[in-house]
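Materials and Methods. Structural model of Glycoside hydrolase. The 823-residue sequence of Glycoside hydrolase from Streptomyces resistomycificus was retrieved and submitted for structure prediction as follows.
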Amino acid sequence: MIRIPFNDAWRVGPLVSVHEAIVVAGAGEEEVTLPHDAMLRGGRSAENSGGPQTGYFRDGKWTYEKRFDVPEEWATKRVTFEFEGVYRDAMVYLNGALAGQWAGGYSRFHVSADAFLKYGQANTVRVDAQAHQDSRWYSGGGIHRPVSLLVGDLVHVTPTGLRLTTPDIDADLATVVAATEIVNEDVSARVVEVLLEIQDTAGEVVACDRSRVTLPAGDTITTHQRAYVQRPSLWSVDSPHLYQASVRLHDDSGPIDEAATHFGIRAVTADPIRGLRINGETVKLRGGAIHHDNGILGAADFADAAERRVRTLKAAGFNAVRSAHNPMSVALLDACDRLGMLVMDELFDVWTVAKSGDDYSRRFPQWWERDVDSLVAKDFNHPSVIMYSIGNEIIEAGTPHGTRLGRRIADRVRAQDPTRLVTHALQGMYIARDKIPALKAELGQDAAPVRGLNDYLGQVTHLIDALMASPVVGERLAEPASVLDVVGLNYGESRYVPDKEAHPNRVVVGSETFPTKIDRLWRLVTENSHVIGDFTWTAWDFLGEVGTGRHVYPEDQQVHRAPYPWLTAECGDIDIIGQRHPISYYREIVYGLTQTPYLAVRRPREDGYVIKPRAWTWTDVFPSWTFDVPVGSPLHVEAYAAAEEVEFRLNGSTLATVPVGTERNFVAEAEVPYEPGVLEVVAYRHGAEVGRSALRTADEPTHLSLESDRTELGADSQRLAHIGITLVDGNGVLNPNRDTKITIQVDGPGVLQGFGTGAPSTEESFLDDCATSFKGRALAIIRATGETGRITVTARAHGLPDASIEIDVVQAAIHHVTGEGQK
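The predicted structure was written out as tokens:
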């Protein structure tokens, strides 16, 4: 089917009752380009909002409308709308009549348009959506993923009908099986030729097959064709080689329809002896959970933003991501395919027992099967996807009826895709929640005073470890674990070693873990073959669940969720604009991926209060040697290194030589007197230097530095450029202590799609053209408008010269190749 992007010239406004207004074609307050997050425009407030769970954003109900022309010749075609994600309870109307709906906010769905279209005339499509007390994180709202119009012949490949498998692979030959679902909606029988072609990255046809099929009127048939690729290039994390498969339908009159997709040739297996293997090689998952939002873009999901996220995550040492806690977007899966990132794609955060006031549990009984089908259809041809997760911390998972439901979900997944592993992120705090009071009393936590949030988090960590190790959790895990190919455990590392003996056939993954424990966790992963990896909470910070990992001092509110105007969870290795936190560099060293030590300095305080690593909270350190303190003031420094000892040097003089790992693995600490200049750390093993790094004092800022992730864009309204803005001195050194208001101006064929910082607490809007830098940084995201020319982006700050950067916008390549997986 021909795939036509359908993202421009939508109008959006609040959904109102027909008693208040009559919604007509073209109504709405604002013209937007999809994908779009309507919740951003509603703003935030301490009261009358979703509260700390959703980042204090206000919920809402919205309606989107678009007028479009339908050619006369489409009367003999089939027209289908493809929505990749609408949050939530989408109702789709064509020319005023209900044409389709979907309850879930993250599933891809299709709406047949034929019965509602007016051929040779203008038509109207309207989509209503809502978000109201239904999420434990920032959900966003509206049509937050792209929309396409699919147009095909009466005989055509169904929208998700081309599925590729590679059942037999060796170095000399790979068998590719193409299952193609073809439907005949004509009034008479049709005979069609089916041509399958496999192309390599150079566009050369490396395998093909031709078959013939007779379709009676109204019939649907699935063809199975085999093609053989000689000397195949296998897909893996380090070599993400992709092939292109296309299926073309012909009859006596000529070409009828086409479907195409990319795919990878690779094999995935898991067992407790050899662990997870991809193409026969053992792989340990260096994983991280990520939410669906794109930081300052909100929930809007653009392909260029997805690619930037995956590149950043891979550069930070991750080789796997887990979608938390909903199906991943096509754009993100495409990026994982291209760049070599493994995926655990997750279906649900709730089944039948609610976690929020009006969450998906109310829709689950009627919709879960369709959501399963949608997930599998979306993921089937993506080689990056190695595991499906059927749920996250499902409250009823350990009950007899919950286990039965879990088995039904897993079986429905396997019936459609037996090639991938099935897991479930199980959490003992839910499975054995009735035993928590007794266990707290046994541990003495009922009588122990809680001195602030940091102490509370320490107690929670100890309680989770004890509960997960308890026999009652082991017993209640027995049946839900038996449903799975891989047992996912959230914060369950205390079960890894005991279960190895008790359940010798069980394969385990740390589906969610505390980031502060990565040194011990990774040792458990590497020393136990049945533990295939670890997924930290979280790899990338996200909106909502505010303040989960923040630094709490005595003068702060001692509550688990932070007060308004907190915005982010503040527990990611990487912040919402893509900047790595110190723990990210610590993780990279623990993984053994670098010999370069990392240097950071604790924020100075007169009272000397120290925040130690607890749960989701790392130490309060920052990679800077620029402080407004008197010379000679003692500052606490941390160095992370895979070494025996490190040497701290200041302006060429050795201050201290400290062993690594005295109190924390891979960490050396010291107090050094502050003096502007260069603070350096040198790491040694067996007396030989293995690496060094340095921090330099910044002078007063002299200018803004602008850097774009691309110098050229296609003239396509889906294309983005990310422009990092830093506040630097004359030597180009970032100054994190002189934050200032920055205003962005965009001239030429581009618009400002989002502007903001990694500040975890702010009242500024990502939709404004002005933002206050945070620790010397800000990010502007520019979207092309669809015209060619040159975009000029200018940044202004009081007392500093204007700074500009240019991006050329060239004619975009036109892609009318159609079918599953094509954009």
